[in-house]
Amino acid sequence: xxxxxxxxxxxxxxxxxxxxxxxxxxxxxxxxxxxxxxxxxxxxxxxxxxxxxxxxxxxxxxxxxxxxxxxxxxxxxxxxxxxxxxxxxxxxxxxxxxxxxxxxxxxxxxxxxxxxxxxxxxxxxxxxxxxxxxxxxxxxxxxxxxxxxxx
Length: 151
Prior knowledge:
This is LTXXQ motif family protein. The protein is built from five helices and no strands. The protein is mainly α. Helix 1 (about 5-20) runs antiparallel to helix 2 (about 35-50), helix 1 packs parallel to helix 5 and helix 3 (about 50-85) packs antiparallel against helix 4. Mean pLDDT is about 85; it is low at about 15-30.
C-alpha cells in the first residue's frame, strides 16, 4: 500500500484514534497530546488532500495559529470568570471592553492566518479546513463517549 494513499491515512488515523481512547487513564480521562496531534494531522491532511510540499509549509502555520488562538481563548475565559459574581458597573464596562478587544484580536489572527495559508494551499482547501477541524473534534468526542459507555 502506498504510504501517501487515502486508505493508508485512514487506517493510520483509525489506529491513532483508537489508541487515544484506549490509552486514557481511567480516573483522570486525560489524553495523549502527541497522539491527538498525530491524529489531527492525519485527519486534516487526508480531508484537505494536502500534497507533501503543501503539508510541509501548512502545519507550522496551522500550529502557530492554534497556539495563538488558544492563548486568546484563555484570555476570553479569564474575562468570563472575572464577570462572575458581584462586580461594579465600572468593572462590567471594563470587562465588556476587554472582551471586544480579545474578539478583535481573534479576528485579526484569523485574517492573518487565512492570508498566510492561502499562499500555501488553495482557497478551496482553506474553506474546507474549518469543517475538517470541527469534524475531527466531533469524531474524537464521539469516540470518547463510546469509550465511556455512552451512545
